[in-house]
Design a protein that fits this description.
Order of helices and strands: HEEHEEEEHHHHHHHEHEHEHEHHEHHEE
Shape: globular
InterPro entries: SAM-dependent_MTases_sf (IPR029063)
GO biological process, one term: methylation
Strand order of the largest sheet: 9-8-7-10-11-13-12
Strand content: 15-25%
GO molecular function: methyltransferase activity
Organism: Pelomonas aquatica
Number of strands: 13
Number of domains: 2
CATH superfamily of the largest domain: Vaccinia Virus protein VP39
Number of helices: 16
CATH architecture of the largest domain: 3-Layer(aba) Sandwich
CATH class of the largest domain: Alpha Beta
Structural class: alpha/beta
Pfam family, one: Methyltransf_23
CATH topology of the largest domain: Rossmann fold
């Protein structure tokens, strides 16, 4: 069964060397539930429940149903806890409460109360507590299919008393488990985030509504990014401020694996849902407030800055500088240094002239009167961070310049 799962891509490839040693393939980049869109969490839940159903049918049991046991490999969820399976001996699925906390309840609160699931994991590493969900849903919880999960206080072990504890038949564990898995699957389908797409958000419709770009500018920008990606042939690309992944997909088309980061949940949801996004690992994360680690000593799961460190052969920062420098008040030199910390060799950055309409818009939004750096000053900041200019491409409107930089220090 494990070999079949590995061949299917559902379980990370592994080899048992002896009775004390297991080795597994290293996945190039690991994202965390606190960085996933609702759709990614749903995909991880589907995988977890599917493996549990197949394990039960084969006489085995999944001891843990944690979202942290799933990683995304090129945009696809993969189960990685190789030691989480044991023989099936009990009617109760001890991990049912955990499955609810990590998957069903976060997606339910996102749907009903507008709390994105990734924010729930930032608040509660072990998923949404049942009592918190009960209070947030209010009396209306009794009118939904989820009332067994939040109808009453959880047991001391953290499992809702109504899940997995009813006696069906002492002689037929498998039949009881099949019914339980079907019930959890029914609940999970009810919080399928694809029912809510497109996900409304501040930047979710950016690609369709960016009137500050002329069509000729966009055509030149796409051609330039595609050409540089082909010529450089990077194995790993980091797209910072990716929106829904338009340029991430151009990089992926060159054969690269892509990490695509944006703060907008709606935009990331669109990227994840796009069938053309194969090979792209999307993350929801604000670049001006990247989180540290999780778990014991904040080191069990490394924070995003540590995981991005020198991760990419090519890093892209397209239409991003003004959001960080003006919108988030990050010093230009610090932005340039962050880019240098992320990339092994190449950087593509979109430099923006002070007279660009978006600069004026953000300045007016924030009542900023300080001058925005010139294109020459922006370029100089990246050179001071250890880059040299390899190639420039001025977009036809004249206010934006794409620069291909190479690390020299």
């Amino acid at each position: 069964m494990a070999r079949r799962w590995c061949e299917r891509g559902d379980l990370v490839d592994f080899e048992i060397l002896d009775d004390r040693t297991v080795t597994a393939r290293r996945v190039p980049f690991v994202s965390l539930p606190a960085e996933w869109s609702d759709l990614q969490l749903f995909q991880a839940a589907e995988l977890t429940l599917r493996l549990q159903c197949e394990a039960v049918a084969a006489g085995h049991d999944l001891k843990d149903a944690s979202a942290w046991n799933v990683i995304f490999d090129g945009g696809r969820p993969v189960f990685c806890d190789l030691l989480s399976f044991e023989p099936l001996t009990d009617k109760r699925w001890w991990a049912a409460g955990q499955f609810a906390r990590h998957f069903i309840l976060p997606l339910l609160l996102s749907s009903k109360r507008g709390l994105p699931a990734y924010k729930a994991f930032q608040a509660w590493r072990d998923g949404v507590p049942h009592d918190v969900a009960r209070r947030m849903l209010g009396a209306g919880r009794f009118l939904t299919r989820y009332w067994p999960l939040v109808a009453s206080a959880p047991t001391p072990a953290g499992r809702p008393a109504a899940v997995g504890l009813a006696v069906v038949s002492a002689d037929d564990i498998r039949r009881f488990r099949t019914g339980l898995d079907q019930s959890l699957g029914w609940m999970l389908r009810g919080v399928d985030p694809r029912r809510r797409l497109p996900d409304p958000s501040a930047w979710g419709n950016y690609v369709a509504e960016r009137g500050h770009y002329a069509d000729t500018d966009l055509d030149v920008k796409r051609d330039c990014i595609a050409r540089w990606a082909r010529n450089l042939a990077p194995a790993q690309v980091l797209d910072l401020g990716c929106n829904s992944g338009e340029f991430s997909r151009l990089a992926a088309a060159s054969g690269a694996r892509v990490i695509a980061v944006d703060l907008d949940h709606g935009a990331i949801s669109r990227g994840v849902a796009d069938p053309a996004s194969q090979g792209i690992d999307f993350l929801v994360a604000p670049l001006d407030d990247l989180r540290g680690g999780f778990g014991w000593g904040a080191a069990e799961h490394a924070g995003l800055p540590a995981r991005l460190l020198r991760q990419a052969d090519l890093t892209m920062m397209l239409a991003l500088l003004h959001h960080l420098v003006l919108g988030a008040s990050i010093p230009l030199a610090a932005v340039a240094q962050f880019a240098a910390d992320c990339t092994k060799r190449w950087l593509v950055v979109e430099l923006i002239a002070p007279q660009d309409v978006q600069i004026g818009f953000i300045q007016a939004q924030r009542n900023r009167r300080d001058p925005f750096p010139t294109i020459e000053e922006q370029e100089a900041a990246f050179m001071a961070a250890g880059f040299a200019v390899n190639e420039r491409q001025v977009l036809p409107a004249g206010n934006r310049t794409l620069v291909l930089l190479e690390r020299v220090a």
